[in-house]
Write a structure and sequence with these properties.
- This protein is of the alpha+beta class and 496 residues long.
- The chain is built from twelve helices and 25 strands.
- The protein folds into two domains: 2-226, PmbA/TldD fold (2-Layer Sandwich), CATH 3.30.2290; 234-490, no CATH class.
- Helices cover 23% and strands 37% of the residues.
- The strands form five sheets. Strands 1, 2, 3, 4, 5, 6 and 9 form a seven-stranded mixed sheet that branches. Strands 14-13-12-17-24-23 form a six-stranded mixed sheet.
- A hairpin with a 2-residue loop joins β1 (19-33) and β2 (36-52).
- The longest helix has 18 residues, at 66-83.
- The radius of gyration is 24 Å and the shape is globular.
Length: 496
């Protein structure tokens, strides 16, 4: 595969490309539902990307032969030349270190695909049986699903870089609930093991997670969720769990600070951003209170967005997006870093990519995709979800966010959530058919308190972006938080 990648790059240069890179990937995916495999696939993809007179060309295929590499390279150059007729487009493209014949494998304890299918099926069966054993005569439903992915990637470029990289993703859904509570797309009596969202880990992520030990507590929680109170539409101070904060952070700051989205290049696909003028807003725009600090990176072990190199051979760096409530940076690729060169020059910062180029497979063109995100915790380790609830006289606790629906600008957000009343510092009953509604700047400017370092937790997310749509994965680390004056709306009544 390395020889094929090199052949594609050489052919592109010979055809007239000023720059070329090639990515070849083998993606293995498997899914278990309860005790049986429902998806088992291995797909190959190759893509050749070229630059001619400042214009891109790209061709892809699922055929891996030397002749196919030449065909793709020439086709990509022809496409770029057709786009560049009549003008020359300048790209500020700062050099990057050459990575020569290196290899990196995401550190996992057990490659899931090295574990016998029967052993993994037995594990899923044990979890399912234990859940069903707690059902008794109650009208309960259980759901068990496990997903595994491994991507082997080969990269070569005309700048001399060549490397191989293997990454993993593992996910488990273990849930139970009451069928009689299903209405309007919600299980009010539904409880899940949130420890198994997407992670950059192997089989150990599920086998050593203690899922079975969590099931009795899940059963008790599902029972509590059956006994609900009606929505009292109003504005409340709300205490968010770490999971709920991660679900809000991901679209309202993560997606909103993707530079291509902010400049409108995603307008006809997954939307734009309320950060609509990055050059004017960088360094001045108040995203939230001074408590708000957000960092992006792709280096944390166990996070599903972690990688040694991005899809342009950049070694990703940790960078701060929001500092003390102010927007100070955005997510970039190599080309995109030059788009905001004026800001970097003014701030005395280097003009370089943050390593956010990624693609679903070798057969898709790389684009800016979200890295791992971290909501930095507060300073006091005594501040936890429970302590924030205890200091709230009359409010709402957001136990989890099942679905965060955002508008076209990642601004207006409606969270379908599992909510509980807070009365005199204590958690009360669950609230039926309720959702939290807010606009992103209002939410972050109403931030009152953040949980301490020990309350931080990681959660994995899928991103859907581009046209044709691509799917990639990243992790978000968040802490519990208290937000003042948010709207509680009634899903049953509508009008929100």
């Amino acid at each position: 595969m390395q020889a094929l990648a090199a052949r594609a790059v050489d052919a592109a240069r010979a055809a007239g490309a000023s720059y070329a890179d090639a990515r070849l990937t083998i993606l293995r995916q498997q899914r278990f539902d309860a005790t049986r495999i429902t998806t088992d696939s291995e797909t190959f993809g190759v893509g050749v990307r070229v630059l001619v007179n400042g214009f891109w060309g790209f061709q892809s295929s699922a055929v891996r032969t030397p002749d196919e590499m030449v065909r793709l390279a020439r086709g990509a150059v022809g496409q770029a030349k057709a786009s560049s007729r009549g003008t020359t487009r300048e790209i500020r493209w700062d050099p990057i270190p050459v990575v020569k014949n290196e290899s990196w494998i995401m550190p996992v304890k057990y490659d899931p695909f090295d574990i016998p299918v029967g052993e993994r099926a037995d594990f899923a069966g044990d979890v399912s049986s234990y859940m069903n054993g707690l059902m008794d005569a109650n009208p309960m439903a259980t759901y068990v699903s496990m997903q595994f992915r491994r991507e082997y990637k080969v990269f070569a470029s005309s700048e001399g870089s060549s490397w191989t990289q293997t990454t993993y993703g593992t996910k488990g859904d273990f849930s139970l609930g009451y069928r009689d509570q299903y209405s309007q797309g919600l299980f009010n009596g539904w409880a899940s093991a949130n420890t198994a969202t997407w992670a950059g880990k192997g089989w150990e992520y599920l086998s050593e997670s203690g899922i079975i030990d969590q099931i009795p507590a899940m059963h008790d929680e599902a029972e509590q969720r059956r006994h609900t109170v009606p929505v009292e539409v109003n504005r409340y101070d709300m205490v968010f769990s770490a999971q709920a904060m991660a679900s809000v952070l991901d679209p309202t700051i993560g997606a909103a600070t993707e530079l291509d989205r902010a400049l409108g290049y995603e307008a006809n696909a997954s939307g734009t951003s309320y950060i609509r003028d990055p050059l004017a807003m960088l360094g001045t725009f108040q995203v939230g209170t001074p408590l708000l600090n957000v960092v992006a990176e792709r280096s944390t072990p166990g996070a599903v967005g972690t990688a040694k190199w991005d899809d342009e051979s950049v070694t990703p760096e940790s960078f701060q997006i929001v500092k003390d409530g102010t927007l100070i940076d955005v997510q970039t690729t190599r080309e995109q870093a030059g788009w905001i060169a004026a800001y970097y020059d003014k701030a005395g910062l280097p003009i370089r990519s943050h390593g956010c180029a990624n693609a679903e497979s070798g057969s898709r063109m790389s684009m800016q995709m979200p890295p791992n995100l971290q909501l930095l915790p507060g300073k006091s380790d005594t501040t936890t979800f429970d302590s924030l609830v205890a200091e709230t006289k009359n409010g709402v606790a957001v136990i989890s966010v099942d679905y965060a629906q955002v508008d076209h600008q990642q601004n207006g957000c409606m969270c379908r959530s599992q909510l509980r009343k807070i009365t005199n510092g204590k958690l009360g009953p669950f609230i039926t058919y309720a959702a939290v509604y807010f606009r992103a700047p209002q939410f972050w400017k109403n931030l009152l308190a953040l949980g301490g370092p020990s309350s931080a937790q990681w959660y994995g997310f899928q991103t859907f972006k581009g046209d044709p749509q691509q799917t990639t994965f990243h992790s978000v680390r968040a802490v519990p938080a208290k937000i003042k004056d948010l709207s509680l709306v009634d899903l049953g009544r509508g009008g929100w």
